[in-house]
Please model this.
Amino acid sequence: MPLVSTRQLLDEAAKGGYGVGAFNVNDMEQIQAIMEAAKETNSPVIIQASRGARAFAQDNYLFHLILAANELYPEIPIAMHLDHGNSFETCKSAIELGYSSVMMDGSLKADGKTPATFEENVAVTKQVVDFAHARGVAVEGEIGVLGGIEDGHGAGGSGLDHVTDPDQAVEFAELTGVDSLAIAIGTSHGAYKFTKKPDGSVLKMDLLIAIHKRLPKTHLVMHGSSSVPKDLQDIINQYGGKLKETWGVPVEEIQLGIRNGVRKVNVDTDNRLAITGAIRKVLWETPEKFDPRDYMKPARAAMQKVVAQRMTQFGQAGHAGDYKAISIADMAKGYKDGSLSTKPLVAAR
Ligand code: G3H
Ligand code: 13P
Ligand code: ZN
Model:
């Protein structure tokens, strides 16, 4: 099966009423963990790489690992997605490499830190949409700004500083023609999202529902969706780590989002926690070990467990075989002839 566009994956998810986890990768073991979890749960897959991941692994290594996954699991639809592209050039380079999907995060300027104006966001996102759709590649845009900073990317501050305005979301979707829309509802990247179990004052699910009401057919994307489970925090701290007490996004809130238009759910931190906890445990309990396979195997297994759990909780489990992949070349034809509409359905306020 060729690499699949996230547009097809998310269109199918909308038909089936489920969400699809988008898991970040930086290395072979993380890709293996995701693919084994997908096989175990019979799930379609979105693998995503940030700019940091591309720099860490180098483009060719990372991309060819995805192609290997595609060869090894021909029954599983895989989308390869650029996470948080910061500029037209970054998105263009991913598309030219063969990514089937990109995120143009124009909510921030190209420095990845300073919030951009609405007009700047529209202009750069539209530029990416025109380039990507002509090549059959799907585009995710972002309106509103998430909190936190990951690997130098992010405006910092609280997730509530720049939440999405529903009217702007409508205007942005109309002006850009994005395939999916990331919104800011109080979440942030990383482990430190909330200081207690979040309620509606900090995690704005009512805002998400309001945006979905205005854009009932638009695929919404929830970033910063790690749940930061206490058991994963505890393993790290039990074996010498020093995480402060923290809360993530409860899975039931993500499921509420999925019932209200969320189709792509971004998860990175939970896997980072699972990997680190497993490695710490081995090194703590058996300090005489030095073969990386002794700790990378349990680390990979720990990530697989988290990913399989999320695939089941988001509802994508069981759906890998529902459809045949549309090639990226055929997606390009669909954008050109209008059969893949990019005009959002807008409901009155
Ligand atoms: O967007 C945030 C993801 O967790 C990727 O993080 O930029 O540190 O690779 P990163
Ligand atoms: P987390 O840090 O909550 O895992 O979010 C990941 C993300 O949004 C990647 O784009
Ligand atoms: Zn993100």
Summary: The longest helix spans residues 292-314. The chain has a mean pLDDT of 96.
